[in-house]
Amino acid sequence: MIPTFARRTGTKTRRRFLATTLAAALIAPLSALPASAQGSAAAQRIADHFSSVKTMTGEFVQFGPKGEQTGGKFFISRPGKLRFNYEPPSSVRVISDGKSVAVGNSKLKTWELYPLSTTPLKLLLSNRIDLSQQMVKSVKEDPDLITIVLGDKNIFGNSTISMMFDPQSFELKQWTIRDAQGKDTSVMIYNVQTGVKFDPSVFKVPYDQTRPNTSLRN
After folding, report:
1. Exposure check for the chain: N or C terminus, fewer CB within 10 A?
2. Angular region, 44: left φ>0, alpha ψ -120 to 50, beta rest
3. In a domain, 140, yes or no
4. What is the DSSP code (8-state) at residue 212?
5. By residue range, what is the domain housing residue 118?
6. Cα separations (Å) of 208 from 16, 89, 136, 197, 211?
7. What does the pLDDT read at residue 28?
8. Shortest CA distance to 19 belongs to which of 85, 92, 89?
9. What is the Cα–Cα distance from 30 to 131, expressed in whole angstroms?
């Protein structure tokens, strides 16, 4: 199971990897708020807090289109670096080194390469979220959750990423990537530690084993 950005590569890749999407019961559709709501003080405080957290690690659960789920451990070092280690029986690993995202399958002994700049993960891993920028699609504030939806049609087409925060602790709880077909992949995180130090090898992409996925450019 892999993040949604890999679905953009077409039928061949979709057959090679099982892409995961959000279980419909877990999250309600998001309604866009007026532009004036995008710069609310509470939402910007959360965005600024998230920007101050440069490293984090913990566990995750990822939900699929038919209710299937998988989990594992994640590692984030912003800007740009991420790693997902999926639990067995999944054979997938995902690594971003700030420039490229590599999706590996240990059973098939394959790695495929994607430019980070073409995936919504870039927004999750950016240095700062500025709610005054055009990439902010909506901000939804509920008593127990604040959701910030980001996207850039010129770069990601109809794909977006929704980041969900606790309004009290300002902690990131979940993110959901919606692909061009309107399908969602949701990752919920827990047992999170912040301010951790990583060995550089954690985010090392095995370029000598990868092959560029040129269909992203078509």
Report:
1. C
2. alpha
3. yes
4. E
5. 4-24+33-195
6. 20, 26, 37, 26, 9
7. 26
8. 92
9. 17
Q: How far apart are the first and last CA of the chain?
A: 24
Backbone angles phi, psi at 165, to 5 degrees: -120, 150
pTM of the complete model: 0.76
208 burial (CB, 10 Å; 0-12 / 13-18 / 19+) is exposed
Number of folded domains that form the chain: 1
| Peptide linkage before 88 cis (omega within 30 of 0) | no
Q: Does residue 217 belong to any structural domain of this protein?
A: no
Chain position carrying tokens 């047992």 = 191
Whether the CA torsion 22, 25, 28, 29 is positive or negative: it is: positive
Q: Which residue has the tokens 């101050």?
A: 52
Among the listed residues 1, 21, 5, the one whose alpha carbon sits nearest the alpha carbon of residue 113 = 5
Residues 184 and 21: beta-carbon distance below 8 Å: yes
Does residue 212 lie in a domain region?
Answer: no
Query: What count of residues does the chain have?
Result: 218
Under the phi-then-psi rule, with left for phi > 0, alpha for psi from -120 to 50, and beta for the rest, what region is 160? beta
d(CA 20, CA 215): 20
In tens, the pLDDT along 72-84 reads 999 999 999 999 9
The contacts of residue 61 (CB under 8 Å, 6+ apart) are 69, 70, 71, 187, 188, 190
CATH classification of the domain holding 39: 2.50.20.10
Number of C-beta neighbours around residue 128 at 10 A: 12
Q: Which residue has the tokens 């109809």?
A: 158
Q: Token digits for 89?
A: 């029986």
